[in-house]
Amino acid sequence: MSAVDYFKQAPPISRTIAASAFTLSILVYTGFIPFYYVAFIPEKFIQLPPQIWRLLTSFLMTSPKFGIIFDTYFLYTYGSKLETASPKFSQPGDFFTYILFVCATIVGLNMALTGAYLFTSALVLAFAYTSSQDDRGMKTTFYIMQIPAPWMPFAMLLVIFIMESPQQALIAATGIIAAHLHDFLTRLWPEFGGGRNLLPTPAFIKRLFQTRTTTTTRKAYGTSVAPPEQSGSSNSVLPESWRARGSGHRLGGN
C-alpha cells in the first residue's frame, strides 16, 4: 500500500488535522509563512476584514524541532482512535462537535488565564484525556513504565512542565479541563446526575457528516443498484402503519 492509499484510508478528520499541523509547522519554521500570521491575536478578529483563520492555525502550530513529529503523531493517534473507536462518538458529526466545543473552551480559558497565542499542546492533551477515559482499567506504556491509562494525559503534562515551562504546562492543562468539561456535560451528568446530554450534536452537523452509500451489483443481465439505507428503516414489505398490528390470525379460525 502506498503512502497516498494509506492517507486516503485514514479517518478523515484526524488525517486532515495531522497533515495540516505538519504542513503548517514546516512552512512556518522554514520561514515561508511568517509566524505572526498564524498566532491567535484577539485584536485581529475585530478589524475589517477579520482574520478568522487564526482560530484554526493557532491549533495547528506544533512545537519546534522534534515537536513537529511528536505533536503530529499524537494528534493523529489519539484523534483517529476517538474518531473511529470511541463509544462517545458513535453518531455522524459527534467527533466534529466535540472538537468545536473543546477548541472554543480552550480559547476561552487561555484568554482568561494565560494570554497564550498557540493551543496545539492543549488540543493534544484534550484528545489524550478523552481517549484515556475509554481505557479505564487498562495499562499503557509511558516511556519504559506501565501506568494506568487514565494517567497518561497527566504524565504528558508533567513532561511539558519539566521539559518546557510551567507556563506551557498551564496552557496544555486547559485542554484537559476542556475535555473533562465535555465528558461531564455529555456523559457524567446524564449517567450519574439524572440529567440529559447538554451538548447534543446539532442536526445540521449530523446531516453534513451523514454518509449515504449506494450498493451496485453487476449481473449478467445488467446492473442492480440498491438505494442508500435509511436509519430506522425496516426490510418489511408491509406499510409502516401495519407493522404494529400483531401477528395476525386466519379468518374463521379458532
UniProtKB/TrEMBL annotation:
<feature type="region of interest" description="Disordered">
    <location>
        <begin position="219"/>
        <end position="254"/>
    </location>
</feature>
<dbReference type="InterPro" id="IPR035952">
    <property type="entry name" value="Rhomboid-like_sf"/>
</dbReference>
<comment type="function">
    <text>May be involved in the degradation of misfolded endoplasmic reticulum (ER) luminal proteins.</text>
</comment>
<dbReference type="GO" id="GO:0005789">
    <property type="term" value="C:endoplasmic reticulum membrane"/>
</dbReference>
<keyword id="KW-0256">Endoplasmic reticulum</keyword>
<feature type="transmembrane region" description="Helical">
    <location>
        <begin position="17"/>
        <end position="40"/>
    </location>
</feature>
<protein>
    <recommendedName>
        <fullName>Derlin</fullName>
    </recommendedName>
</protein>
<dbReference type="Pfam" id="PF04511">
    <property type="entry name" value="DER1"/>
</dbReference>
<feature type="transmembrane region" description="Helical">
    <location>
        <begin position="52"/>
        <end position="76"/>
    </location>
</feature>
<dbReference type="InterPro" id="IPR007599">
    <property type="entry name" value="DER1"/>
</dbReference>
<feature type="transmembrane region" description="Helical">
    <location>
        <begin position="96"/>
        <end position="129"/>
    </location>
</feature>
<keyword id="KW-0812">Transmembrane</keyword>
<keyword id="KW-1133">Transmembrane helix</keyword>
<comment type="similarity">
    <text>Belongs to the derlin family.</text>
</comment>
<keyword id="KW-0472">Membrane</keyword>
<feature type="transmembrane region" description="Helical">
    <location>
        <begin position="141"/>
        <end position="163"/>
    </location>
</feature>
<dbReference type="GO" id="GO:0006950">
    <property type="term" value="P:response to stress"/>
</dbReference>
